[in-house]
Specification:
Layout lengths: L1 H8 L9 H7 L13 H13 L4 H10 L2 H30 L2
């Protein structure tokens, strides 16, 4: 595939309009030893980090094969969801009390 061949060499933003999506979520498939974490693995790692627990095997995988941009984006989404849940719970409790 032309995309995978050019991707392994690097692609400039102007030649590829969906560069950011590919940068964040599509691993290089030309490398058979690629052990990049999947989106589900990244999500599990972020949730474990929010709780303060992590297996050393997953920790090593994250730092060796993961892209920081993936963890930052998933982490920001997780924090936004968490804050949204807290705000919703507070509003429900406050309205049930009558305040």
């Amino acid at each position: 595939m032309k995309w995978q061949k050019s991707w392994s060499k690097g692609v400039s933003l102007c030649h590829n309009p969906d560069y950011i999506i590919r940068l964040l979520w599509v691993p290089n498939m030309n490398n058979p030893d690629n052990k990049a974490p999947t989106l589900w693995d990244v999500t599990k790692s972020v949730m474990a980090a929010m709780l303060g627990v992590q297996k050393s095997k997953n920790h090593q995988r994250d730092f060796q094969y993961g892209k920081p941009s993936q963890y930052i984006i998933v982490g920001l989404i997780a924090v936004a969801v968490f804050v949204g849940i807290i705000i919703t719970v507070v509003n429900v409790v406050m309205s049930s009390v009558g305040l």
